Amino acid sequence: MLFAGLGFDIVYILAALLLVLTIHEASHALVANALGDPTPKSMGRLSLNPFAHLEPLGVAMILLLGLGWGKPVRIDVEKLKPGPKVGMMLVAIAGPISNFLLALPLSILLRLKIFPLYGNIRIPLDFLPFDIQAVYFGLGPLLMWIVWLSLALGVFNLLPLAPLDGSRLWQVLLPTKIYFQFARYEIFGLFIVLGLILTDRFFGTNILASILYPPISALWRLFVGITPPFQF
User: Is the CB of residue 148 less than 8 Å from the CB of residue 220?
Assistant: First the structure.
């Protein structure tokens, strides 16, 4: 899902990305704080300021390759009240759940056609000293991108690969000693994720696309009730 050649849609995409990533990462921070770890709050992550949650490489990957991530929330697992493993599982799952909860009410507006997907309002700019006559803005296209990117980010983060959120769902089953040993090598999981994204994009393997697109499109059809407008 490359974003080149989208014209004014890039404005919708950037606005949607800021919202989707902010909600995702702030939800991690909110649950961690609620479970007894003040670290995210002390680092300014318990915030709806999008610039507190942007990670340059992750955002660049989204814009250039269609998949990426926000700035990870630092957690002191020893302070989580249910214990490190269960606590981290709850913190992790909060991110994808927040994305689905964000997508749901907005998708209802699209489903009811309150804001048409492709309806735009012409905003004249001919009074400005630029060679731009007008731009076209519509709440429907903006909501469409927010819902799509929310579903995509939520599903992507449920992959059972460290350091994605989905890895916390099965790591909770590991013995405590192995759990902490495994955490030391999560960086290698990031390389695997990056490798999959890059090979999909540049070598056409479509490994991630074949895994992610079916559940994302199924959720889109369930929420919005129409065929997805995008493909990986």
Answer: yes
